[in-house]
Amino acid sequence: MKINGVAYRSVWLDADGWGVRIFDQTKLPWMVEELRLTTWQEAAHAIRSMQVRGAPLIGAVAAYGVALAMREDAGQLDAVLEALAETRPTAINLRWALDRQRAKLHNLPAEARAAAAYAEAAAIADDDAETCRRIGENGLPLLQEIAAKKGRVNVLTHCNAGWLATVDWGTALAPIYMAHDAGLDVHVWVDETRPRNQGAALTAFELGAHGVKHTVIADNAGGHYMQHGEVDIVIVGTDRVTRTGDVANKIGTYLKALAARDNGVPFWVALPHSTLDMRVRDGVAEIPIEERSGTEVTELTGRTADGRIETVRVVAAGSEAANPAFDVTPARLVTGLITERGRCAADEASLLALYPEKA
């Protein structure tokens, strides 16, 4: 995708062929700053601190973290895999990528591990970019159908599931980019997505950079627009989908699904194969939900009128804050899933029909 007309991926190798480049997403949208990762510890910090975030992207960055570790000391494979796996607990793509590296490297001699790890990380990144492109192709007909009936298409999305959350294209935003590029009149309602404001900061940034019409709204405004017929479809991403179609995504997604059901608005979830966790049946009971620092709730960072970036407290002194980062939307509230292999219902039989090898 593009920033100021220049095409980028969200993770890439430096010119020297071994350093890893990312965008520091904690600085967006105020500044576009690249970071160079040279150790697996720096990769782990980037994931933990949310300099990179989004389930597919953290998997790719973790895979490159393994490659950096093998370049340093090929004997530390198991310890590095364990350490990287502990950086974020909810998104299953992280463990999927690390499991791929484990399978690729474990039986190789030490001297062969670094080259193999870099090759596997590149394959994971390429796989994600192509997977997201296909998700876009499979989701596009949903928007074309609405456009054929109504002209303009109003999509509501939550959090950031665009190219900043993946290696390229995105999941929930991929059909929107393709619709825009095909000339459809598409407009996106962008939930601000408290407490970290990934919608207002990241989704709005990348939609704007691509020229897609959008409006940022407060998280609690989505139901109002649905009641007044101004949302045609909801498309969100996900950090983990269970065998039975339950969906873990950014906190607040469940409430959007409830509002969509009450107003007869289709609620679609876009996901790559790496987000499927066929070991889990009951998402509410079994998916671990990351609890992040309360300061993300009590403090806000923004740009002042004179251009300074400042962090301020917005919660009364002495008040504590709870901060679950994700919630789970039960499959019964999901209209369907958009995958790189096609669209399907959010249930076990439909998922297994698309992914029989995961049975």
TrEMBL record:
HAMAP family assigned: Salvage_MtnA (MF_01678)
Pathway membership, UniProt: Amino-acid biosynthesis; L-methionine biosynthesis via salvage pathway; L-methionine from S-methyl-5-thio-alpha-D-ribose 1-phosphate: step 1/6
E.C. no: 5.3.1.23
MF terms (GO), sorted A to Z: S-methyl-5-thioribose-1-phosphate isomerase activity
Family statement: Belongs to the EIF-2B alpha/beta/delta subunits family. MtnA subfamily.
EC class: isomerase
Active site: D239
Function recorded in the entry: Catalyzes the interconversion of methylthioribose-1-phosphate (MTR-1-P) into methylthioribulose-1-phosphate (MTRu-1-P). Also catalyzes the interconversion of 5-deoxyribose 1-phosphate and 5-deoxyribulose 1-phosphate. Part of a bifunctional DHAP-shunt salvage pathway for SAM by-products.
Coiled coil: none
Substrates-to-products reaction catalysed: 5-(methylsulfanyl)-alpha-D-ribose 1-phosphate = 5-(methylsulfanyl)-D-ribulose 1-phosphate; 5-deoxy-alpha-D-ribose 1-phosphate = 5-deoxy-D-ribulose 1-phosphate
Name of this protein: Methylthioribose-1-phosphate isomerase
Keywords recorded for this protein, A-Z: Amino-acid biosynthesis, Isomerase, Methionine biosynthesis
Gene transcribed to yield this protein: mtnA
Record organism: Roseococcus suduntuyensis
